[in-house]
């Protein structure tokens, strides 16, 4: 019979981490029965055909990893299990974050875990949630290394949470809010992991990027050369990974306020679009307010103006209509030109 076991693994980005596994023929396998049976498998560098992507026909079947002694990986990508260690840890940490902090049982809210597959395609510089499973590329080692860092894992799986809550449409302003939701919770998962090798910060993808410090910067989104710091009419015409900048900037300023500080060893500097100074109410309250807004007030077509109202309603529910938290939400949206 199958038993659950606790092993450990040498990850690519998060040092040695505990892993929840199961006994299997030949030792152990990366199946986490304590978190709804989520498992991690090897995509063997195959890609999904168009038929697979559109209709689910002829999809390559990932193969399970096995390990004889339940000590996984080497911390370098030449060992195929190392990226799997990060992915399995990322899925477990994201599951725990939503359950512990928000009382949500997994991505779908039904207690089911999800499959993750690593080594997708060849030099594939992306990671994605397809509605059912996580997929991670190995990167090209020029722009990016393997895309299995905890903030990327939390970002992608949070797309699943968004899909099953507000279901923000992935274009226009709602698309920016969808992307920002993933950046916000990917970041809060990274902080929740409390991992010395990859401490929390408001950069997205700082562990994976090779040709720049990170993919995105929540303290000042325009640092990526493309993202918007402040709302303006037409921001919804940007790619959703850039229109997200307004909400990422809001989230950073709400939690941390203005001014220069070092977070997770990296420089951050919040400044407002209207010249105001903000103090920040902390990450935990940011997470509570954003999650309640997402799961209670936002809908598929929510705009930035409506996100302001949604988060104000959430803050009223959580802290009261006259609370400093609600006032901070109002002042912070105004600080990113959402009035
Ligand atoms: N990595 C991209 C993202 O999550 C892929 C996608 O699903 N658009 O934004
Ligand atoms: Zn995304
Ligand atoms: Ca990060």
Automatic annotation (TrEMBL):
Tagged with keyword Iron: no
Assigned EC number: 3.4.24.-
Superkingdom per UniProt: Bacteria
Name of the protein: Neutral metalloproteinase
Compartments (UniProt record): Secreted
The Peptidase M4 C-terminal domain, residue ranges: 166-338
Sorted UniProt keywords: Hydrolase, Metal-binding, Metalloprotease, Protease, Secreted, Signal, Zinc
GO biological process terms on file: proteolysis
GO MF annotation terms: metal ion binding; metalloendopeptidase activity
Active-site residues (renumbered): 156, 241
Upper lineage: Bacteria, Bacillati, Actinomycetota, Actinomycetes, Propionibacteriales
Residue intervals of the Peptidase M4 domain: 6-163
Function: Extracellular zinc metalloprotease.
Cofactor: Zn(2+)
Organism: Kribbella speibonae
Main localization of the protein described in the UniProt heading: secreted
Stated family: Belongs to the peptidase M4 family.
Single GO cellular component term: extracellular region
DNA-binding in keyword set: no
């Amino acid at each position: 019979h199958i038993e659950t076991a606790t092993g450990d693994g040498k990850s690519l980005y998060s040092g040695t981490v505990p892993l929840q596994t199961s006994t299997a023929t030949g030792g152990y396998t990366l199946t986490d029965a304590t978190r709804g049976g989520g498992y991690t498998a090897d995509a063997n560098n195959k890609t999904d055909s168009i038929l697979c992507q559109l209709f689910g026909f002829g999809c390559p079947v990932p193969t399970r990893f096995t390990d004889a002694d339940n000590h996984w990986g080497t911390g370098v990508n030449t060992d195929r299990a190392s990226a799997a260690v990060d992915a399995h840890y990322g899925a477990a940490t994201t599951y725990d974050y939503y359950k512990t902090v928000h009382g949500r049982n997994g991505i779908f809210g039904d207690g089911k875990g999800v499959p993750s597959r690593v080594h997708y395609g060849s030099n594939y510089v992306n990671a994605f949630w397809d509605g059912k499973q996580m997929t991670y590329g190995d990167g090209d080692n020029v722009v990016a290394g393997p895309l299995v860092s905890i903030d990327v894992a939390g970002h992608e799986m949070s797309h699943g949470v968004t899909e099953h809550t507000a279901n923000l449409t992935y274009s226009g302003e709602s698309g920016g809010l969808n992307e920002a939701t993933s950046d916000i919770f990917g970041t809060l998962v990274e902080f929740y992991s409390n991992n010395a090798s990859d401490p929390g910060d408001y950069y997205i993808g700082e562990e994976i990027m090779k040709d720049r410090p990170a993919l995105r910067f929540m303290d000042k989104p325009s640092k990526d050369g493309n993202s918007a710091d402040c709302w303006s009419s037409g921001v919804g015409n940007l790619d959703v990974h850039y229109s997200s900048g307004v909400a990422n900037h809001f989230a950073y300023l709400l939690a941390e306020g203005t001014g220069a500080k070092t977070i997770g060893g990296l420089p951050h500097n919040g400044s407002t679009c209207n010249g105001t100074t903000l103090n920040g109410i902390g990450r935990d309250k940011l997470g509570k307010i954003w999650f309640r807004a997402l799961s209670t007030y936002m809908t598929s077509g929510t705009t930035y103006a409506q996100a302001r109202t949604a988060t104000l309603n959430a803050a009223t529910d959580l802290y009261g209509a006259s609370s400093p938290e609600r006032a901070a939400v109002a002042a912070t949206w105004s600080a990113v030109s959402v009035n």
